[in-house]
Amino acid sequence: MSEFVICINNDCNPASLIVGKVYRRLLDPEAESHNMLRIIDEDLSELDGYLYAASIFVPVELPEEVKQVLMVVGS
User: Fold this and answer.
1) What is d(CA 24, CA 57) in angstroms, rounded to the nearest whole number?
2) Among the listed residues 24, 20, 18, the one whose alpha carbon sits nearest the alpha carbon of residue 4
3) What is the phi/psi pair of residue 64, to 5°?
4) Rounded distance, CA 51 to CA 6, Å?
5) What angle do CA 75, 46, 67 make, to 5 degrees?
6) N or C: which end of the chain has fewer CB within 10 A?
7) CB 49 within 8 A of CB 37
8) Are 36 and 25 a contacting pair, CB within 8 Å?
9) Terminal C-alpha separation, the chain
10) Are β-strands 22-26 and 57-59 bridged in parallel, bridged antiparallel, or unpaired?
């Protein structure tokens, strides 16, 4: 799966996720085995990200230049 995903549903937590926004996914095989993804969300207070249902995101491939920018801004 891509290291970036787009939120397609924020019903579970509208304060922390924005529909249509690209988020960085952190590698977490244990979470993924439970159909969860570890995401750096809008809060940004938890450097290890938060767990969300994988079903509310779609993986996206981005150009390398975009990835570099998003990694710097903490997206």
Assistant:
1) 11
2) 24
3) -55, -40
4) 15
5) 20
6) N
7) no
8) no
9) 17
10) unpaired
Entry pTM? 0.84
d(CA 5, CA 7): 7
The length of the chain in residues reads 75
Successive 10-residue mean pLDDT values, the chain, 75 residues: 90 91 94 95 77 96 89 66
* Nearest-angstrom CA–CA distance, 4 and 48: 15
Domain assignments of the chain as residue spans, ordered by start: 4-73
Amino acid at 6: I
- Type of residue numbered 20: G
The amino acid present at 44, given as its one-letter code, is L
Cα-based angle 35, 41, 42 (whole degrees, multiple of 5): 155
